[in-house]
Amino acid sequence: MGADPRFFPSAGPRRLAEIAAAAEARFAGEAERIFTDVAPLALAGPEDVAFYEGRRHIAALKATRAGAVLLPAGTEGDLPAGTIALICAAPQLAYARVAALFHPRPRPVPGIHPTAVVGEGATIEEGCEIGPFAVIGARAEIGPGCIIGPHAVVGDGCVLGAGCILRSHASLLHCLAGVAVVLNEGARVGGEGYGFVTTPMGEHVTVPQIGRVILGDAVEIGVNACVDRGAGGDTVLGPGTRLDNLVQIGHNVKTGRGCVIVAQVGIAGSAELGDFVVVAAQAGVVGHITVGSKARVGAQAGVMNDVPPGTDVVGSPAWPARETMRAFARLRQLAAAPKKDGTSGGSP
Amino acid sequence: MGADPRFFPSAGPRRLAEIAAAAEARFAGEAERIFTDVAPLALAGPEDVAFYEGRRHIAALKATRAGAVLLPAGTEGDLPAGTIALICAAPQLAYARVAALFHPRPRPVPGIHPTAVVGEGATIEEGCEIGPFAVIGARAEIGPGCIIGPHAVVGDGCVLGAGCILRSHASLLHCLAGVAVVLNEGARVGGEGYGFVTTPMGEHVTVPQIGRVILGDAVEIGVNACVDRGAGGDTVLGPGTRLDNLVQIGHNVKTGRGCVIVAQVGIAGSAELGDFVVVAAQAGVVGHITVGSKARVGAQAGVMNDVPPGTDVVGSPAWPARETMRAFARLRQLAAAPKKDGTSGGSP
Amino acid sequence: MGADPRFFPSAGPRRLAEIAAAAEARFAGEAERIFTDVAPLALAGPEDVAFYEGRRHIAALKATRAGAVLLPAGTEGDLPAGTIALICAAPQLAYARVAALFHPRPRPVPGIHPTAVVGEGATIEEGCEIGPFAVIGARAEIGPGCIIGPHAVVGDGCVLGAGCILRSHASLLHCLAGVAVVLNEGARVGGEGYGFVTTPMGEHVTVPQIGRVILGDAVEIGVNACVDRGAGGDTVLGPGTRLDNLVQIGHNVKTGRGCVIVAQVGIAGSAELGDFVVVAAQAGVVGHITVGSKARVGAQAGVMNDVPPGTDVVGSPAWPARETMRAFARLRQLAAAPKKDGTSGGSP
């Protein structure tokens, strides 16, 4: 069974040869066989293409009713008879390409909904879809082929490149965005950062937040995630960076290319991340530090100091992963060890 | 003093006999006495019903001006003279029932606001209230007696059972919902999960997310909380499951009946929770693991491995609660102990 | 280079004498010199005023092209020749004042957008700006000079003092707000708290949440942050309290004056914070405890017990900061120490 056609009508059918080409997979015979959709191994039927994610799913592989399965060389022996092997180097990537054959990213249905409000001097290029109750600010520039969803708000003067998508209830303010940028539902870009100075009497005086947000090409922002604008100077997310849901990005944060910021992470003001940094769920990075390229921060970690490139850190406060694992093992031992007296721990 | 009538007008007045019946409470005399509202012990007056939450509130009980108090047998001796004892097994539950007499869940005021946008082929059954600027997608099916609040969005093809409530700014996409489902303000159901594959060159390729969200009867989703749809196959929240505010549920998560997921918790993709699991605030559960029925996860815990049914875990990474408490006690001792040399810890 | 005029047109130009007066700074000569904007040290040009944040930025100070710099006495020797020293006691506070000269908080553009929906009996005082698709509930009272942004919702009966701002997509329900209250984008005030009682059969029975939210003067609520209304009695945020983005405040929480609640913090139901409490990012405070005035809670801390006034706590569970630092140092030592046998830790 493929996707529910009420929500995800298939763009198919597709011939096996087309599928294999998209997947960069090799296969034997039946090039003209027709497939109608993709589906998980356990749910796929004879007209569906599935993929094999690895040994955790070996039972599902052996029992699948899929017509064809994307899998790595050497595992095709575990396929049921009659299921076609699509042998490829990276089955999950191949699946992404094949699934996109059947379910390409929705194209805009060009037009401006009669309820949308478009500000003075705004320019909306060809092929855009502007949804019900969308608000486009004065002098905003919307590139060709953008989708502005229901209730989405684009602030005065903002610039969107070609093919951007703002899903329902998203807002984008004080922002220059590249091409193919995606804001998911309720994502908030360009809010006022948490910037104030407290007087000796305890009054919090707001520091005007007069920087922008610069979003590189193909940046994606998760549902209800927040990216504050710069206090002075800009908040910058490098090309290809993806934020998951409920992430918080403080003012003047800068990331390089392709960073992966998982759900509920917080990156405090003026922190800088290199390229391809991964920050796992619920972790935090304090302000004004640097996390080097390809560093990885563990889930729930609390990063309080610079992290060198390529380093893995975990824990709160975060230490290099190896040392931390050793410390935890030791602590667990201590807790398990018999205790000889009441005043000190751990000694035999 | 009962609730502020500007916000919570009482549906009352009610006779004591009615109140006691709703509470399954016993009392002596005055069955016809009239009460107008419920109120906290400390604020209640002679026409209000209050309840006694336990010994933490004994001073408030002794000083209350409430006309009647819901309390367990054996505590009525602490009531001031003239306050009626409503003796019941579970005072808090009894209070919930009595408060609902005075403040029933708001009924829909049937009608479609003239500003609402209803898509082609959508069906809206009898008795629904559709608020200003609501957007109902094409072919959506809204069961009888639903309330779709201001600015709420129901996506194309979605199905809502009877008596569902979408509060203001909520969105529900790619979803089949049972009866009496509630989405609080800004709740986001059916967003695109965080699904992509990274090429060797560092490009993140989106995996089309073509699953749905299935919400069981009486599921409730907190304010600004997020539930991603399945990548392939469905994300499922079992009947009676309640999510608090700002919770994140990843793609293909499955929960059983009656789970309690407290504020700011994150459950990563494909994790499975049994029935009546409790996950306390700010905890995280990694993907692809199982948390057994009636397990309880402590606040801020980080669950990285399967949790057996009925087990309590705490800490990050999470351990069984007993072992963790012992380890922390030991660590605290170590910190307090005199240190004999600078190169190793803990030994006398 | 000052702020991008597409987003932040300068209200300037200003004479140096005016700037120095706002900053309470002293300077030598050139009182009539004209400045057009503020800018960071590294980006400022000869017509901009910058400020010096401290020794971390000494290189930027020495290299700045700014026309004038706000800095503390004794550091003016590091300025390049030709840059004017504006010597003041608190340069960051002075900067806030000067930046506000060029970028005052936007004034309302009075008027009610034709698409806005205003409920029966609502009163909107002079000078308010009501944006597109705003919804003002029945009997709501909006004080003079308020800005209600696009898609913002004010619930039935709510009261806003003078000069409040609800940014786009914010909602405010069951709430009495003082003057100059700010809700940032998507902020949600007055949602139903997580209040239910579970029957022995596992059914969750909602406790009607019939309290309000009381927001003191100058309270600010961050982007997508949530403040639940009281269950019975009120949730109260004291004057000047500021919540950062994605913060969660449970029902019946009470804070004093000027509290600082940083991003992604959660404060559980009925917790009470004194005046000027600081809770750093991602920390949690359990319900029904008290955090004394001027206490400070570290990032990611988990506060499970009362915190005395003026105390710093860190860690999860939270301990006083000093003890915790000692314990972590000890743990790190243990992890680093040579281990003599496999069954117990830490002893030489």
From TrEMBL, chains A, B, C:
Its EC number is 2.3.1.191. Pathway: Bacterial outer membrane biogenesis; LPS lipid A biosynthesis. GO terms for cellular component: membrane. It catalyses: a UDP-3-O-[(3R)-3-hydroxyacyl]-alpha-D-glucosamine + a (3R)-hydroxyacyl-[ACP] = a UDP-2-N,3-O-bis[(3R)-3-hydroxyacyl]-alpha-D-glucosamine + holo-[ACP] + H(+). GO terms for molecular function: N-acyltransferase activity; UDP-3-O-[(3R)-3-hydroxyacyl]-glucosamine N-acyltransferase activity. Keywords: Acyltransferase, Lipid A biosynthesis, Lipid biosynthesis, Lipid metabolism, Repeat, Transferase. It comes from the Bacteria. Residues 36-101 form the UDP-3-O-[3-hydroxymyristoyl] glucosamine N-acyltransferase non-repeat region domain. It holds the Pfam family Hexapep. Transmembrane segments: none annotated. HAMAP family: LpxD. Catalyzes the N-acylation of UDP-3-O-acylglucosamine using 3-hydroxyacyl-ACP as the acyl donor. Is involved in the biosynthesis of lipid A, a phosphorylated glycolipid that anchors the lipopolysaccharide to the outer membrane of the cell. Homotrimer. Belongs to the transferase hexapeptide repeat family. LpxD subfamily. This is UDP-3-O-acylglucosamine N-acyltransferase. It comes from Neoroseomonas marina.
